[in-house]
Design a protein that fits this description.
This protein has 161 residues and is mostly helical. It has one domain: PgpA-like (YutG-like, Orthogonal Bundle). Helix content is 66%, strand content 0%. The chain is built from 9 helices and no strands. It starts with a helix and ends with a helix. Bound molecules: magnesium ion. The site of magnesium ion has 5 residues, from helix 9. Magnesium ion (MG) binds next to helix 9.
Length: 161
């Protein structure tokens, strides 16, 4: 059975325009060169496992909540402006995302850095500042989920559980 945190985290991702398929496509982007027979279904499977982790749900809930409060201009200064303009030196969005990357060990960090730099697929959409939406936390969370799922895939391909 799904608990309230998982249910809400999944619902909020959907409401913010992020589907499991988008996350799975990022995993495919990161891993297909190492696993030529990789299918999207397998990527979905690993993303689902990542989303079932409590640390991951907590990061999703916290990040999306702050993004939404920033959109509604409900934060106090200087935080309101920092989140609204997605200030590069803020860094707490990345720190929160690291709690997701960490779940499957340090190999996730390389994947996270790589995907954060190239911003493929859904990440390009989330970084479109003309949308009027604030995804300061969500873009890092999405990259981190893909990186963690990639690590999980790599571990399972290596015969670990
Ligand atoms: Mg960010």
């Amino acid at each position: 059975m799904m608990n309230l945190s998982e249910e809400t985290a999944r619902k909020w991702l959907h409401e913010r325009g992020v589907e499991v398929k988008d996350l799975a496509e990022l995993v495919m982007f990161l891993q297909q060169k190492y696993h030529p027979n990789l299918t999207l279904d397998t990527c979905v499977e690993h993303v689902e496992k990542v989303l079932s982790k409590r640390e991951v749900q907590n990061a999703i809930l916290t990040g999306i909540q702050l993004d939404r409060l920033a959109e509604k201009k409900m934060l106090e200064e200087p935080l309101q402006s920092i989140l609204e303009v997605d200030e590069g030196l803020y860094g707490v969005d990345e720190i929160l995302a690291f709690s997701i990357v960490n779940v499957y060990g340090s190999i996730g960090f390389t994947n996270y850095g790589y995907i954060d730099k190239l911003k493929p697929g859904i990440l390009e959409k989330l970084n479109d500042k003309s949308s009027g939406l604030c995804h300061t936390f969500l873009d890092d969370i999405v990259g981190a989920i893909a990186a963690a799922a990639s690590s999980r895939l790599a571990h399972s391909a290596a015969g670990e559980s």
